[in-house]
Predict the 3D structure of the following.
Amino acid sequence: MSVINYKCPACGAPIEFNPQLGKFKCGYCFTEHTEEELTAYLEKLQAKTAGADSNAAESGTINSGNADRVAAFGTGSTEKGGQTVKAYQCANCGAEVVAGDTSTAAFCYYCHSPVVITDRLKGDFKPDRIIPFKVDKKIAIQKFLQWAGKKKFTPKGFTSEMQQEKITGVYLPYWQADIDAKVDYHAVGVNVTRWSSGNRDFVKTDKYKIDRTGDIAVNNLQKLAFSKIDESLLNTITPYDEAEMKPFSAGYLAGFFAEQYTEDKEAIKPALMTQAKQTTAALIKESTSCTHFESEKDSTAYSVRDQRYVLLPSWILTYIYHGKPYVFAVNGQTGTTCGELPLDKAKVALTSGLLGIVFGALMFLGGMFIW
């Protein structure tokens, strides 16, 4: 299974995608490159490497010292914490790179080169589209500190530098769909008006025949396709700006982690269909001025026009406190944040005790003055 190390075309150092620039920037020679430029460079480098390896194979020699080599192969797999992890060889330094069974991008822990596992981005697992990161790690940490700074009873070390460094940029997999609704809806709409005049109360009930037929296109519905993280938390940092969606290119993964989907398109389709039905029903009822409906008959037919595999950016920080994980998340495009707060009960008890002592002392002193 092959991997790619992303290198600077100018100096050969490891290079990452810079969210603020929207380009790749080398941390050594400070040159900047577009995604298209870097992809073209790597493709040329791969072609050169493939040619060199082919010539070496024909001559019966092994070209193990090729400095321009950008592909390596898996070295095995093992079980860790109940999850299958696989080892690959870093093409930059030759060290072992360990990745989870669904990871498609990671880092070499020795030379810190961004690594993209290309064989996990093929066939059904090749994403159709991606929204690149716009929020970098520095901004994500600032947002975490702003959020945590408003909390008074967090555990010691919750905002330490060590904790801040754990925040991770990760592309998470989603299924996105465009669904067509052929509307065939009939009901009785009801409006009830109440008023008083003098000492009498009046109630007026108006009923209307509601008929709605036609076509509605419900586009860009999305559902998380990754079962290893709490979807309800991630839903609070949506929506994403669909206008910035781009055709997928593996280059955008360099410098971040990325995951494959664990729920395939057929498993996700019922949830997307439910979203389409809820959206269509809301649009139908918004088209009337009725407060509620009777004798509803909805024969609307739904069909999926297009379904896409997309990667969306998030910054994730997990904090384990008394054996329970707490998660903080930042939308990697818009900067919207949400998180769960670990509560230090000792701090709460201490504060309550001090307030109790102060309140008791004030009551005692007040009593002395009264007497």
Summary: The mean pLDDT is 82. Residues 281 and 302 are 12 Å apart (CA to CA). The helical segments are 35-59, 137-149, 161-164, 231-235, 265-286, 345-370. The first helix runs from residue 35 to 59.
